[in-house]
Fold:
Amino acid sequence: MPSDLQALFERQRAHAPVMARTSAAERRARLAGLRRAIVARRAEIGAAVHADLRRPPAETEIAELHGVLAEIGVAIRRLPRWMRGTRAPTPLLLFGTSSRITYEPRGVVLVVAPWNYPFSLVVNPLIAAIAAGNCVILKPSEKTPATAALLARLIAETFDPAEVAVVQGGPDVATALLGLPFDHICFTGSTAIGRIVMAAAAKHLASVTLELGGKSPAVVDASADIAVAAERIVWGKFLNAGQTCIAPDYVHVHASRAREFLDAAKAALARLYGGSEEEREASLDFARIVDDGHVRRLKDLVDRTVAAGAEVETGGRIDAATRYVAPTILSNVAPDAAIMADEIFGPVLPVLAFDTLDEVLAVIRAGGKPLAMYIFARENAAIDRLLRETSAGATVVNNTMLHYASSALPFGGVGASGMGSYHGDHGFREFSHARPVTRQREPALIGFFFPPYRGRWHRLAMRVLRLLE
Ligand code: NAD
Structure:
């Protein structure tokens, strides 16, 4: 265990009771300070993410900065209400008492983040953790070093390290941090590492929020508006070059409309990124793959899937030197193709034709419960059946990814795609312990049920108890 990490942790642990006592005004001041720091460095954040992922700064504004600033706004507005807690009703048996659910911070929180949205997936959990009154250590991804370094500067300028600090490094540093007895760990990343994090948390009985990945399906029913479905799926898939946890991973399209869908998807791709392969490669609006390893992984997946009989409808070009993977659409993909085994996390969209919803349900259920599921249909029967017979972190009907943008909705996975959720009220609660406080006034009726358990009073008490069941 590096002694500096241990020392930082001890410092935060000693400071945690001070943070716990902060008023709504004090927490709001911290959140407002964070907002000022972000707004002041807005262009720098866009540039850092561009340096890491060659992502267009406009996309960072839309997909990261807007959400972060909106979350801060919601937290600042609602914090006094959150901190007041809620009154709970009193059952007849507890007549003479009153109860409230109060929220206390968990203590010292560790946030471990991935590289794909390297700013917001560090800062969004931080907002909720500060609102709830915790001390926080943030570990951004080592794969996006420009954003990680900027975050470290921004946080150091804004917070006392006894309250919030950034620790940079890769798996070794993450492993060292996981050895410390944090009260809560918020991990966003792959399901495989999520398992390691949960095992480490078990040693200290730390609570966990696991925001994981998986294959999020899109289903296009025969009743869907195909042009609309194709455009929205293409948008969701190719944003950030497919490196989005809630991107539609693959598409099931009703066989009767598969050709129409493929043509509409190609037309949408042309509108969004350019009509020819050359224009798309030159487009400033299309991001690059994070590192060489992922480029090789994607190339291998496409090669194996095509060798097994899939057709490249468009794209397919990969330039390892610039980490460019062309937006690619594959048709005629079998459910057991290589590309269907794990989350793709890149700009490759496999399209599978189906005849019955039973086939679709079998494929979806064969993977773990996905982080998101998208249904495109105009008839409610298909929507209802898909909702009833699957489980997913969230579902959007007739669009993709929109649920992420609402602070009113809990964002999180289920089963293999994670546990716990955050954003808005849900984030405050996730980083708090809900502590019920029951106050007894006199006289206390419960004395009626104390021993000895015999005699007239006892028989009467038992009768009353039954009446209250
Ligand atoms: P990852 O799991 O490889 O890494 C995530 C973080 O874990 C990084 O900070 C990394 O340094 C750290 N880490 C790596 N090895 C570790 C180890 N052995 N022990 C502890 N920590 C370790 O994930 P990634 O490649 O950065 O991100 C991609 C994955 O994240 C995808 O599966 C994606 O779906 C998922 N994701 C989920 C969400 C969500 O909100 N649910 C959001 C974004 C990404």
In short: The pocket of nicotinamide-adenine-dinucleotide is lined by residues 112-116, 121, 139, 141-142, 170-171, 174-175, 178, 188-190, 193, 196-197, 211-213, 245, 343, 345, 371, 413, 418 (CB under 6 Å). The chain has 16 helices and 18 strands. The chain has a mean pLDDT of 97. The two ends are 54 Å apart (CA to CA).
